Amino acid sequence: GAGVSQTPSNKVTEKGKYVELRCDPISGHTALYWYRQSLGQGPEFLIYFQGTGAADDSGLPNDRFFAVRPEGSVSTLKIQRTERGDSAVYLCASKTEAGGYNEQFFGPGTRLTVL
Amino acid sequence: SQKIEQNSEALNIQEGKTATLTCNYTNYSPAYLQWYRQDPGRGPVFLLLIRENEKEKRKERLKVTFDTTLKQSLFHITASQPADSATYLCALVSSGNTGKLIFGQGTTLQVKP
User: Fold this and answer.
1) What is the 3-state secondary structure (H, E, C) of chain B?
2) CB contacts, 8 Å: B102 with chain A
């Protein structure tokens, strides 16, 4: 079956530009997470969606970052006025139920490079 | 704040030997701990979950231990193979109802033939 997909796989942008990163979770998964992974580090939590609503956005670094999931399926992470420090791999994960401890299914990530 | 640490140095072992990776955590008492495998250019893949009341969990050649007194988990791969070469991530399941994960920085394992 289809796993979590993310587009684009790579994104190169200039400092100050706006970018959108898309995540298609596994069909039927109600919980969706965004993480950010810098080189040599583990993924770092950004935001969690339970259905359509952002149930926990405590990991978003500042107000330049925003994410939506309008129909409870596809999610878009939006970054305004990008900075060089935003360069990282952005990972999306989904799982069958909200909360809990069951495994998360990760996409391949979007590698964002801000020049 | 909750902190989770893995040995950042790469682990190099010979094929057929047992690889042991360490995960230590502080300022937290997780009920669950997960281990993931990550290959270059790919997202993490779930391997094992262990609960706080479980001392040990096994899956094929993998074994995980969870010592809540030492605040440590050990991850073992027996009879290691070159295909086991990857980065292994330890993750705490955060308290509350979100299920969000707090990851260590990962340990890279290289198995030489």
Assistant:
1) CCEEEECCCCEEEECCCCEEEEEEEECCCCCEEEEEEECCCCCCEEEEEEECCCCEEEECCEEEEEECCCCEEEEEECCCCHHHCEEEEEEEECCCCCCCEEECCCEEEEEEC
2) 45
Distance CA A13, CA B42 (A): 21
Distance from CA of A85 to the nearest CA of B (A): 18
Name the residue facing B105 among A42, A55, A107 (closest C-beta): A42
Q: What is the CA radius of gyration of chain B?
A: 14
Residues of B in contact with A5 (CB under 8 A): none
**Predicted confidence (pLDDT) per residue in A68-114, tens digit:** 999 999 999 999 999 999 999 999 999 988 767 889 999 999 999 99
Alpha-carbon distance of B95 to B69, in angstroms, equals: 18
With left for phi above 0 and alpha for psi between -120 and 50, is residue B41 left, alpha or beta? left
Nearest CA in chain A to B8: A40
The reply to whether A25 touches chain B by the CB within 8 Å rule is no
Inter-residue contact A7 to A109 (CB < 8 Å): no
